[in-house]
Amino acid sequence: MKKIAFFMGKGGVGKTTISATVAYQLSRENKKVLIVSLDPAHNLGDVFEKKLTNEKRPLGANLDGVEIDLSAWVARYLKESRNEIRSNYLYHSAINLENYVNILKYSPGTEEYAVLWAIEYIYREYAAAYDIIIFDTPPTALTLRFLAMPSITSLWVGQLSKMREKILKKRQTILAVNPKASIVRNRPLEDGGDEDVPVQGATDKKNDKIYIKLSGISARLTELQRLFSHESYLSVVVNPDTLSLSEALRIREELDRLGVHINSVCLNKTSAEGAGRENVEKNFGGCPVFMSPLLTEGVRAVSDLSVIDVEGVKNDLKAAE
Ligand SMILES: Nc1ncnc2c1ncn2[C@@H]1O[C@H](COP(=O)(O)OP(=O)(O)O)[C@@H](O)[C@H]1O
Ligand SMILES: [Mg+2]
Fold this sequence. Notes:
The protein is of the alpha/beta class. It has a single domain (4-319), classed as Rossmann fold (3-Layer(aba) Sandwich), CATH 3.40.50. Helix content is 49%, strand content 15%. It has helices at residues 15-28, 44-48, 70-88, 97-106, 110-126, 140-177, 209-231, 242-257, 277-283, 311-319, and strands at residues 4-8, 33-37, 57-60, 63-67, 132-136, 183-184, 197-198, 232-238, 264-270, 289-293. The strands form 2 sheets. An 8-stranded mixed beta sheet has the order 3-4-2-5-1-8-9-10, with helices on both faces. The structure holds adenosine-5'-diphosphate and magnesium ion. Adenosine-5'-diphosphate is lined by residues 9, 11-17, 43, 268-269, 292, 294-295, 298-299, 308.
C-alpha cells in the first residue's frame, strides 16, 4: 500500500466523503490511518461529528484526524522568511524588512508553499506511525498549484544556484586581484560608525550561506516531488455530469505534464446501474474507474461510512506499491 493518498476533484463531488469513507473502512481493517484535511473550508470534522484542529485527534480505533490551519502555516512561513532575511542580510540596512514581509504575505505562491510545508511536516512527523495518510484536498486550483510547486520551484532554484556560483567565482577573481575588496564601510561615519566591516562574503560554495540555503530548498522540493510522484496514490472524484468530468480531465492533463500520474477515478453518486461509467472510462482510457452509488438518504451519520461502497478504490489503493 502507498503511504499517502490524495482525493481530488471539483467542489461538491464527494472528495471529503470518499476520503473519510476510505479512511474509516481501512481503519476497520486494522490499518492505522491518519486523515488530513487541507481544505481551508473544513468539513471533515462534520462528517465524523467531531471537532478537528491543527493537532491530530482520535476519530475512532486506528483512526486519527487533523484539519490543517492554513493561516497558521502561512504565518509560520512568513516568520521563517523574516528570520532568514534578518540573519542573512543584516548588513544590508537598505532592506525594509517589515515592508518586504507584507509584500510576501500577498504574493502569489505563499498559500501553496504553506500547504507544501504542512504536507512535509505531516509526512515527516507521522509517516512512521501510520500505515497510510489520506489527504482530503482543497478546490482544484489550489491543489494543482501546490502539486506543481516542487517542479516549478526546482527550476528557478536551480537557476538561482547557478547564478550564485557565478557570483562566488567573480568574488574569487576580484579577491585574487585585490585582497581588500571584501572590506566595505558599512556604517556611515555620521552614525558614529568608523569601522570597516567585511561583508560576510564567502567565496566558496561550501561556506556560502545563500548557496547552502538554496541547496537545502532544492533538497526539500526534490523530496516532495518524490512524495507526489512515487509515494502517493492519486484519485480523482467525479460525478455523472459533464462539468465534474471535464474538471477531472483537466486535473489529469495538468498533473501528467508535471510527471505526476493519477491512479484511478472514483465515479461517485452514480445510480445503481452505474450510468455514465462508459463515458468516464472512454475519457480516462486505461485508468481504472470505481463506482460509489448515491446514498438516496444522503450521508447523515458516521455509521453511513461503513455503507458507502468504496471497495474498488480501497482495494486498488491497498494493492498499489
Ligand atoms: N455517495 C454519496 N451518496 C450520497 N451523498 C453523497 C455521496 N457522496 C457525497 N455526498 C454528499 O454530497 C455533498 C458533497 O460532498 P463532499 O464530500 O462534501 O464534497 P467535496 O468534499 O468534494 O466538496 C455532501 O452533502 C455529501 O454528504
Ligand atoms: Mg470537501
